[in-house]
Specification:
single chain, two-stranded antiparallel ribbon, 19 helices, 1% strand, globular, cadmium ion transmembrane transporter activity, transmembrane helix, NRAMP_fam, transmembrane, membrane
Length: 440
């Protein structure tokens, strides 16, 4: 049965079809924001605030290219990777093999997130050990998402976004009544695009870890398709009517992506300001997940014992939202990749549901086992961050192919869009080149 639907033309009409961005925002705001962003504020003070804002804003152009590709092809990302020009090994394109080679480190990264969730829960209920909390967290998550229903993932993500955004913003507002209050002059100093020599490395690192990453950009394809954007557009029959529908659903997707960008930018900025205001003055920068405990103690000292629970609620939903959406997203992208490699069947709706269900149990179990053996969540997250940086370079390449090789001529964007796209590409390449130079 055809699901072709004329796109809404008004702002309020488009709001009814938002959703993929909710899932992306829940995935993006995780350990990087809670740990790395807060630590940067603690080290640098307010001076590098602009780096965080720019980092969150410029990468969204690549996300838009992947969203558009989902709409005009209607096919999943690993299938589209397998159609790229270039060398193949066996059944798969080199890009799929590169993605697969990075997944060992990525497994460690999400294992670190499992550890973070368990640590926060243990802080709230110390009678239960961290290891037991880790096991319970992944079992509950697998049970919630294994059925593969898009609606549950979207609604769950939206609820967690509302909760962690509210808690973090309330925390920031309450801070204004303490000796750590933030003043406009401090924020203004962080928006002047200045960068002391000693903070260059820290700033480049922050640019790489905040905002939308390579993983989330890939996930966006699956969620746009499951939301129905591609089905509403219909298959490309070369007619002007199809092009008009595609452009209309592009506009819906643009709004979805931009609003999600606003959410994760606001939350990331709030975490940075907390670190800069509360920790920078003391000169001490707690490492890793100890940041959670230190921030909670500072809040109890300034606002009273009740504030620890408020902060732990925010910390839990920041970390758990990443675990929840990672389980749902990984099950899809891994199932798709295994389908292209011939290791699983992912060619029909029924096979897709079965693969997602299986992987929704297997992947979280692997994350949990890795954490239980390694017991070093911060190191696990950092190692995964290395793979994320490499993956982002692959995303840049694929985005260029999508924009200049595969995008139908009838859907060519405006010059303004292309300028923003190239700013994004060049920014990411510059940061990556700097990282390589530092390593060498």
């Amino acid at each position: 049965m055809s699901r072709i639907l004329s796109p809404p033309s008004t702002f309020t009409g488009r709001l009814k079809y938002l959703g993929p961005g909710f899932i992306l925002s829940a995935a993006i705001v995780g350990s990087g924001e809670l740990i790395a962003t807060t630590a940067l504020g603690a080290k640098a003070g307010f001076i590098t605030f602009w780096v965080i804002i720019v980092s969150c804003l410029v990468k969204v152009a690549l996300q838009l290219e992947f969203g558009k590709n989902a709409i005009y092809t209607g096919t999943f990302m690993m299938h589209n990777f397998n159609q790229l020009p270039g060398r193949r090994w066996g059944r798969a394109h080199w890009s799929i093999w590169l993605w697969l080679s990075l997944q060992g480190l990525k497994l460690l990264q999400v294992g670190g997130i499992v550890g973070g969730v368990a640590i926060v829960l243990h802080m709230a209920w110390p009678a239960v050990s961290v290891n037991v909390w880790a096991i319970l967290a992944v079992l509950i998550t697998s049970f919630l998402v294994y059925r593969g229903h898009y609606g549950l993932v979207e609604k769950g993500s939206l609820v967690m976004i509302i909760l962690f955004t509210a808690v973090i913003l309330v925390s920031l507002i309450l801070l204004q009544g303490t000796r750590y209050a933030i003043h406009w002059e401090q924020i203004k100093s962080g928006l002047q695009f200045s960068l002391p020599t000693g903070l260059v490395a820290i700033a480049f690192g922050a640019f790489g870890i905040t905002g939308v990453g390579g993983d989330e950009i890939m996930y966006y394809n699956y969620w746009c398709i499951e939301k129905g954007y591609a089905a509403y557009t219909g298959p490309n029959d070369g007619t002007p009517a199809w092009a008009e529908r595609a452009k209309g659903w592009f506009n819906v997707m643009y709004l979805d992506a931009v609003l999600s960008m606003v959410v994760y930018t606001v939350v990331t900025a709030a975490f940075y300001l907390l670190g800069a205001a509360v920790l920078h003055r003391g000169g001490a920068v707690p490492e890793g997940y100890e940041m959670i405990n230190v921030l909670s103690r500072i809040f109890t000292e300034t606002l009273g014992p009740w504030a620890k629970n408020l902060f732990l609620v925010g910390a839990f939903f920041v970390l758990y939202s990443t675990l929840f959406t990672a389980t749902a997203s990984w099950a899809r992208v891994w199932g798709d990749a295994f389908g292209e490699l011939g290791w699983m069947k992912f060619d029909t709706a029924e096979n897709q549901r079965r693969s997602i269900a299986i992987l929704s149990w297997i992947l979280p179990a692997a994350w949990c086992i890795l954490y239980l053996f390694i017991q070093s969540p911060v190191l696990m997250v950092i190692l995964g961050g290395i793979a994320t940086s490499i993956l982002l370079l692959l995303i840049v390449y694929v985005s260029l192919v999508f924009r200049f090789k595969e995008l139908p001529a009838s859907l060519k964007p405006t010059l303004t869009y292309d300028i923003f796209f190239w700013v994004s590409v060049v920014s990411i390449l510059m940061v990556s080149a700097y990282g390589v130079i530092q390593i060498l």
